Amino acid sequence: DDDQADFVLHRLDSRYTHLLVDEFQDTNPIQWTILKSWIAASHQAGTTIKLFFVGDPKQSIYRFRRAEPRLFEVAEELIVSEMGGLKVVQNFSYRNAAGITNLVNECFRKRISNFVLQQSVDPSLPSEVEVMPLIESAEPIVASDASIWRDPLVTRRSEPTDDRHYREGLLIAEKIHNLVSRKSINVDSECSPIKYSDILILIRRRTHLKNYEDALRSLDIPFVSQRNGALLESPEVQDVIALLSFLFAPHVDHHLINVLKSPIFSIDDGLLKVFINREEKSMWTLLIEDQESKEQKLPAELCSAAASLSTWINYVDKLPVHDLLDMVYSESDLINRYAGYALPDIAERVRSNLIAFLEYSLDFSGGRFPSIERFLEQIRVLQFEEGAGPGEGSQPGSLNSARIMTIHGAKGLEAPVVFLADATASPDADNWNILVDWTPGDDVPNHFSIYGARKDAGQVRTEVFQRHDLLNNVEDINLLYVAVTRAKQAFFVSGVTSKKQETSSWYFQLKDAVAACKKTYGLECSSSIQCNPEDGVAIGTDEHSQEIKKEHFSIGTRVVQFKNSSMDFGTLVHKILEIATLDVGSISKGEMKQMFELVPDDFEMAWEASLRIINAPPMKRFFDSLEYLKAQNEVAYVNRSGDMRRIDRLVEFDEEIWIVDYKISLDHHSKPSSEMRRQYKSQLVQYRDDLVNIGVGKPIRIGVVLSGGELIEL
Q: Which domains does the chain carry?
């Protein structure tokens, strides 16, 4: 608008004398035209504006938004040639370790035009680069003999399944477990064990994201993913959906069973067996009849559940979904109950998802009094359509979880450890889009048209398509460059085989580059395999030991940081024993100290007490992985009364199960009195009774361990 242009430009000139444009490689031609108008008007008014353009054409990955990195050359001509400015090239990386920059140089020096070799500011920083083996296709399933009749009610039809990306996810999860268990990184010039939050998993597209999520979840790797639809697939939200479904239709038994067994009520199978083989009535009807019956004695847990559910059912037709859920959340303390059942590393994620679902119920239908029926119908529609539902709730920055992101979503981010998954995937098919041919610096495009399938594009636009394809290839290289340079110290590549194996895929480009790198790098180990008997604790290092620990231990509890230097002595010994017995291999005193942000005052005494307990002859079988079948530390559970319990160490042997409780004191020669023993026994008997109630199937023995390493069976 010529009438308004002069006024707007005058206001800009009078207000701004300096212009900084960051991420200039993402500028599109229309934006550049606007900038040129402003700069030209500034020249004409005699108030030349100071320009500062910052960017990296190698990181231009937004061509689908019409970003044009070639405008860098046009801007350079303007600033350097016409305005007498300077061009400054920066090739020092303050993010990437030397191993990463070497990989970048080897991979991109011949693929990116005018590539400048990069250097790491800290060449001594440890780093690790690895190309993991490709996941092979599974053996095809042989179809059954068509002449044999199959009963569809009892025999499932055999169908070929493709689980390559799930198995790739398992490979990544195992690698993450190994890194968190054994490796360290440099944080603020200090060696620190790798945490899950130090890990970033990158993917080109979201096609197989659910496979990776399922694989990480199966190995208890905490992660955060923003996949559309992930919120409705989370177990905690599915339980809430089942609760709403039951409140709407109480006669559906499987919804009621789901609700009763969920952490909302925590009813075990034993209490539900009373409803089997009863009258031809719904389970809810039987539950209400038993509650009102004077003859039928209903357990207190079921009475409480029936009362709560009856109250909520009465409000189904009176409250909108959000208000009904808000009542359920409040009266059942639902969020805290679910967080208490979750592993420590995912408890905050569970909280966030439950809150996000509550917020989604408010957003549904614009907050206008939606019925529970309409809400559940909408949920069913979203669950049926892949990726149609809301993503998971926002996660706090302090959450100790790995992140899964697309490369575009990770632009501008960084992480100490980066995985590039599905690196053998091909770029998306280039169909049904807008074809624009715009010479950098021109005010208008040379060509603008719409195209469908490329095979039907015709011959008239051949040259335009050739230029279009060339720019797409450049951006594909840029996308790989962005992925690699997100890594600070470690970069891992994985992929799957396919029938049309492209040797030009990212996987093979990186594989060749890694092979060409002359120097071998490696992250430092956070715990050594061998142990100094005077300074460390040998836990067992053979393959059998590693396999058992990996399978049965809670991965998310290995590294615990303490900020209270005067923490309780007994708690400190508990934590040292927990960490030491979880580590595959050995851990020294110095390495243990590194796990504390502030070393507690009684650390030396606590370390000696831990050594006495682990090395005591009566305790050998409880800590040597070759002696037992399974072992777990700090086993938390909620009993039938709703009380939180925690077993210090639970060990399963061939013929029996042991519940071990640590009773630690500063004086390791002290012995408990008879009264204290009775108190200890009362506590452990409760633990034993709780295990008996769930039907473990083996004799259960209980005992306490004293500071001197003595085991007292009760």
A: 2-88 (3.40.50.300), 92-139+163-194+416-526 (no CATH), 230-384 (1.10.486.10), 536-713 (3.90.320.10)
Q: 209 is written with which tokens?
A: 């994201």
CA distance readout (Å), 248 to 29, 234, 254, 316, 592: 55, 21, 13, 7, 54
What one-letter code names the amino acid at 60?
S
Token look-up 């007490």 returns 609
Q: How far apart are CA 407 and CA 484, in angstroms?
A: 10
Is 37 a residue whose pLDDT tops 80?
yes
Residue 224's φ and ψ, nearest 5 degrees, are -125, 130
With residue 341 as reference, give the H or E element that holds it.
Answer: helix 334-341
Q: Whole-angstrom Cα distance, residue 280 to residue 269?
A: 20
Residue type at 268 in one-letter notation: D
CB 665 within 8 Å of CB 708: no
CB-based contacts of 410, cutoff 8 Å, min separation 6: 200, 202, 482, 483, 486
Number of other residues whose CB lies within 10 A of the CB of residue 535: 15
Cα distance between residue 566 and residue 681, in whole Å: 30
- Yes or no: say if 428 and 205 are a contact pair by the CB < 8 Å rule: yes
d(CA 665, CA 292): 52
Residue range 442-490, pLDDT digits in tens: 889 999 999 988 888 788 888 999 999 999 999 999 999 999 999 999 9
Residue 86 to residues 79, 81, 469, 571: CA-CA distances in angstroms? 7, 9, 33, 61
How far, in Å, CA of 24 to CA of 534, rounded?
59
Contact yes or no for 680/661 (Cβ under 8 A): yes
pTM for this structure?
Answer: 0.62
Distances (CA, A) of 67 to 19, 20, 31, 295, 553: 20, 18, 10, 77, 48
Please give the structure tokens belonging to residue 130.
């690895």
Within 10 Å of residue 559's Cβ, how many Cβ atoms?
19
Classify 35 as helix, strand or coil: helix
Buried b / exposed e over 368-385, threshold 16 CB at 10 Å, is eebebeebbebbeebeee
First to last CA, the chain: 90
> Are residues 274 and 302 in contact, defined by beta-carbon separation less than 8 angstroms?
no
Give per-residue pLDDT as tens, 94-135: 999 999 999 999 999 999 988 999 999 888 888 999 999 999
DSSP state of 276: T
Q: Is the dihedral of CA 450, 456, 458, 461 positive or negative?
A: positive
Q: What is the DSSP string of 592-630?
A: HHTT-SS--TTHHHHHHHHHHHHHSGGGHHHH-TTT-SE
Amino acid at 714: L
Residues 342-365: tens digit of each pLDDT = 877 678 888 888 998 998 888 876
- The number of CA neighbours under 13 Å toward the Cβ of 709 is 17
* SS3 state at 560: coil
Q: Round to whole Å and give the CA distance between 339 and 638.
A: 12
